[in-house]
Amino acid sequence: MNVVTPLPSQDDIKDIIARHSQLEGPLLPILHDIQSQFGHVPQMAVQVLADALNIGRAEVHGVISFYHDFRDAPAGRHVVKICRAEACQSVGANALADHALNKLGGEWHMTTPNGNITVEPVYCLGLCACGPAVMVDGQLEGRVDNERIDEILTECGA
Protein backbone atom coordinates (compact mmCIF):
# COMPACT_ATOMS: atom_id res chain seq x y z
CA MET A 1 0.00 0.00 0.00
CA ASN A 2 1.30 3.48 -0.82
CA VAL A 3 1.79 5.95 1.97
CA VAL A 4 0.29 9.38 1.41
CA THR A 5 2.50 12.17 2.71
CA PRO A 6 1.81 15.88 2.96
CA LEU A 7 2.62 18.09 0.01
CA PRO A 8 6.23 19.22 0.03
CA SER A 9 7.26 22.80 0.49
CA GLN A 10 9.94 24.56 -1.56
CA ASP A 11 12.27 24.07 1.41
CA ASP A 12 11.61 20.30 1.31
CA ILE A 13 12.55 20.25 -2.38
CA LYS A 14 15.67 22.35 -1.73
CA ASP A 15 16.74 19.93 1.02
CA ILE A 16 16.45 17.03 -1.42
CA ILE A 17 18.42 18.96 -4.04
CA ALA A 18 21.16 19.68 -1.49
CA ARG A 19 21.52 15.96 -0.71
CA HIS A 20 22.30 15.28 -4.37
CA SER A 21 24.18 18.45 -5.33
CA GLN A 22 27.58 16.72 -5.38
CA LEU A 23 26.45 14.30 -8.09
CA GLU A 24 27.16 14.84 -11.75
CA GLY A 25 23.79 15.01 -13.52
CA PRO A 26 21.68 14.98 -10.35
CA LEU A 27 18.24 15.53 -11.91
CA LEU A 28 17.13 11.88 -12.05
CA PRO A 29 18.29 11.02 -8.51
CA ILE A 30 16.57 14.16 -7.23
CA LEU A 31 13.32 13.32 -9.02
CA HIS A 32 13.41 9.75 -7.68
CA ASP A 33 14.00 11.06 -4.16
CA ILE A 34 11.12 13.56 -4.42
CA GLN A 35 8.76 10.89 -5.71
CA SER A 36 9.92 8.41 -3.09
CA GLN A 37 9.23 10.86 -0.28
CA PHE A 38 6.03 12.46 -1.55
CA GLY A 39 4.52 9.90 -3.94
CA HIS A 40 4.74 12.26 -6.90
CA VAL A 41 6.68 15.21 -8.30
CA PRO A 42 4.53 18.27 -7.66
CA GLN A 43 4.35 20.98 -10.30
CA MET A 44 5.88 23.57 -7.96
CA ALA A 45 9.07 21.47 -7.80
CA VAL A 46 9.75 22.03 -11.51
CA GLN A 47 10.73 25.69 -11.13
CA VAL A 48 12.70 25.01 -7.93
CA LEU A 49 14.67 22.28 -9.73
CA ALA A 50 15.21 24.39 -12.83
CA ASP A 51 16.55 27.29 -10.77
CA ALA A 52 18.78 25.13 -8.56
CA LEU A 53 20.26 23.12 -11.44
CA ASN A 54 20.48 26.08 -13.84
CA ILE A 55 18.40 24.35 -16.51
CA GLY A 56 15.12 25.26 -18.16
CA ARG A 57 11.70 24.32 -16.84
CA ALA A 58 11.08 22.59 -20.16
CA GLU A 59 14.07 20.29 -19.58
CA VAL A 60 12.82 19.33 -16.11
CA HIS A 61 9.30 18.79 -17.43
CA GLY A 62 10.66 16.78 -20.36
CA VAL A 63 12.47 14.37 -18.06
CA ILE A 64 9.42 13.98 -15.80
CA SER A 65 7.09 13.33 -18.74
CA PHE A 66 9.53 11.00 -20.55
CA TYR A 67 9.88 8.50 -17.72
CA HIS A 68 6.63 6.64 -17.04
CA ASP A 69 7.34 6.05 -13.36
CA PHE A 70 7.26 9.75 -12.49
CA ARG A 71 3.82 11.08 -11.72
CA ASP A 72 2.64 14.64 -11.23
CA ALA A 73 -0.18 13.78 -8.86
CA PRO A 74 -0.35 11.41 -5.91
CA ALA A 75 -1.19 7.81 -6.77
CA GLY A 76 -4.06 5.91 -5.22
CA ARG A 77 -3.57 3.76 -2.14
CA HIS A 78 -2.84 0.82 -4.47
CA VAL A 79 -0.96 0.96 -7.77
CA VAL A 80 -1.83 -1.69 -10.33
CA LYS A 81 0.61 -1.88 -13.24
CA ILE A 82 -0.32 -3.95 -16.27
CA CYS A 83 2.45 -5.11 -18.59
CA ARG A 84 2.20 -3.74 -22.12
CA ALA A 85 5.30 -5.44 -23.60
CA GLU A 86 5.06 -7.64 -26.67
CA ALA A 87 5.34 -10.97 -24.84
CA CYS A 88 2.39 -10.11 -22.59
CA GLN A 89 0.45 -8.63 -25.51
CA SER A 90 0.82 -11.92 -27.38
CA VAL A 91 -1.03 -13.76 -24.60
CA GLY A 92 -3.86 -11.29 -24.02
CA ALA A 93 -2.52 -8.29 -22.13
CA ASN A 94 -4.38 -5.79 -24.32
CA ALA A 95 -7.73 -7.46 -23.65
CA LEU A 96 -6.84 -7.71 -19.95
CA ALA A 97 -5.98 -4.02 -19.82
CA ASP A 98 -9.19 -3.08 -21.64
CA HIS A 99 -11.18 -5.20 -19.20
CA ALA A 100 -9.53 -3.61 -16.14
CA LEU A 101 -9.90 -0.06 -17.45
CA ASN A 102 -13.54 -0.67 -18.36
CA LYS A 103 -14.23 -2.13 -14.92
CA LEU A 104 -12.71 0.96 -13.29
CA GLY A 105 -14.39 3.32 -15.73
CA GLY A 106 -11.25 5.16 -16.67
CA GLU A 107 -8.03 5.23 -18.58
CA TRP A 108 -4.32 4.77 -17.99
CA HIS A 109 -2.83 6.75 -15.10
CA MET A 110 -6.27 7.39 -13.67
CA THR A 111 -7.00 7.10 -9.98
CA THR A 112 -10.42 5.84 -9.00
CA PRO A 113 -12.71 8.48 -7.49
CA ASN A 114 -12.42 6.81 -4.06
CA GLY A 115 -8.62 7.16 -4.24
CA ASN A 116 -8.04 3.43 -3.87
CA ILE A 117 -6.48 2.44 -7.20
CA THR A 118 -4.19 3.99 -9.78
CA VAL A 119 -3.75 1.88 -12.90
CA GLU A 120 -0.63 2.32 -15.00
CA PRO A 121 0.93 0.70 -18.05
CA VAL A 122 4.41 -0.74 -17.67
CA TYR A 123 6.67 -1.95 -20.43
CA CYS A 124 8.00 -5.28 -19.16
CA LEU A 125 7.85 -6.73 -15.70
CA GLY A 126 10.27 -9.53 -16.50
CA LEU A 127 7.63 -12.27 -16.35
CA CYS A 128 7.59 -12.81 -20.09
CA ALA A 129 7.01 -16.57 -19.81
CA CYS A 130 4.10 -16.01 -17.40
CA GLY A 131 2.12 -13.31 -19.17
CA PRO A 132 -0.04 -11.43 -18.95
CA ALA A 133 1.72 -10.00 -15.93
CA VAL A 134 0.71 -7.35 -13.43
CA MET A 135 2.34 -5.69 -10.46
CA VAL A 136 0.22 -4.70 -7.49
CA ASP A 137 1.93 -2.49 -4.92
CA GLY A 138 5.30 -3.87 -5.97
CA GLN A 139 4.22 -7.54 -5.97
CA LEU A 140 4.40 -9.43 -9.26
CA GLU A 141 1.73 -11.77 -10.49
CA GLY A 142 1.75 -13.80 -13.70
CA ARG A 143 -0.84 -15.47 -15.90
CA VAL A 144 -3.49 -12.94 -14.91
CA ASP A 145 -6.84 -13.38 -16.59
CA ASN A 146 -10.04 -11.30 -16.39
CA GLU A 147 -11.26 -13.23 -13.35
CA ARG A 148 -8.01 -12.67 -11.46
CA ILE A 149 -7.80 -8.96 -12.36
CA ASP A 150 -11.37 -8.58 -11.08
CA GLU A 151 -10.30 -10.21 -7.78
CA ILE A 152 -7.25 -7.94 -7.56
CA LEU A 153 -9.28 -4.80 -8.21
CA THR A 154 -11.89 -5.86 -5.65
CA GLU A 155 -9.19 -6.61 -3.06
CA CYS A 156 -7.79 -3.12 -3.72
CA GLY A 157 -11.17 -1.51 -3.15
CA ALA A 158 -12.52 -0.91 -6.65
TrEMBL record:
Q: Which family does it belong to?
A: Belongs to the complex I 24 kDa subunit family.
**Entry keywords, A to Z:** 2Fe-2S, Iron, Iron-sulfur, Metal-binding
Instruction: List the Pfam families.
Output: 2Fe-2S_thioredx (PF01257)
Q: What organism is listed for this UniProt entry?
A: Marivivens donghaensis
- Signal peptide location: none
InterPro entries from the xrefs? NADP_DH_HndA-like, NuoE-like, NuoE_N, Thioredoxin-like_sf
Q: Which cofactor does it need?
A: [2Fe-2S] cluster
- Name the CDD domains on file: TRX_Fd_NuoE_FDH_gamma (cd03081)
Can you say what this protein is called? Formate dehydrogenase subunit gamma
